[in-house]
Hints:
Helix content is 69%, strand content 0%. By secondary structure, it is mainly α. Among the domains are: 62 residues, 434 Repressor (Amino-terminal Domain) (Orthogonal Bundle); 112 residues, no CATH class. The N and C termini lie far apart (50 Å). InterPro entries: Cro/C1-type_HTH, HTH-type_regulator_Rgg, Lambda_DNA-bd_dom_sf, TPR-like_helical_dom_sf, Transcription_activator_Rgg_C.
Amino acid sequence: xxxxxxxYKDLRKGQEITQTEACQGICSISKLSRWENNxxxxxxxxxxxxxxxxxxxxxxxxxxxxxxxxxxxxxEIIAAIKDEDVPVLRKYVQAxxxxxxxxxxxLELKNIMLVCNQLLLIEGKSYLTTTDIQRIGSYLLxxxxxxxxxxxxxxxxxxxxxxxxxxKIAMRIVHNFDQVNDLRDNLTIFMGGLSDTVIAFIxxxxxxxxxxxxxELRKVELxxxxxxxxxxxxxxxxxxxYCHTGDEQPVLAIFNNLIQLNCxxxxxxxxxxxxxxxxxxxxxx
Length: 285
């Protein structure tokens, strides 16, 4: 990951910071020089300290360096998520969390969060420590560049994060919509992640948060080919209304409309989400 020393060199020189000033108390000048010439890699903790010394955040650096994190899960893990194969998912999470706890490299968390999120929904159990969750929340709260990685990290987080923290992060993202990098490529992740956050608030019975976030999402001007999100947002509003009134007919009407439009797959996904909401709310009446 941090073999991109030449990018660091350009950023350092751009701020007229010398090598001595940059590395004092962190590493030797020779090590910094070799990293800046892409001859060696540095430890993650060292890289973070060096970035802090030149006033560059981790997400800003990864964006400048055009670093592509590994986003793809192994095929067997994708299959395990689909089949709700808890032992396989648990083994994956435990192995990768051990690796993350050793490296403290937050860029390794994306896939871990995704699988942890699935296990939470299946088992009702979180495999992340309180410290893990706090670190993720702090990182996202202080994010200044909404790169693809950061958007995906948040999209995998809403059921795991504290509701108050999740709400603050979600509102930061939606209020900085125009600053999302590569918006065309990331719009599905952006809207999908925030829509999932609305669902998470509904599951947690934080209807005020769900409604406020949904109201902000409906203000976003979407390109014509993303108008299907309008239907999803309408669906979320109907679910919130159902939670208040217990009337499920407006929700079911959306399913019927989707089926008539030959969108049966999308209708099935929304139906499954609604079933989960009904179960949670009816079990706690």
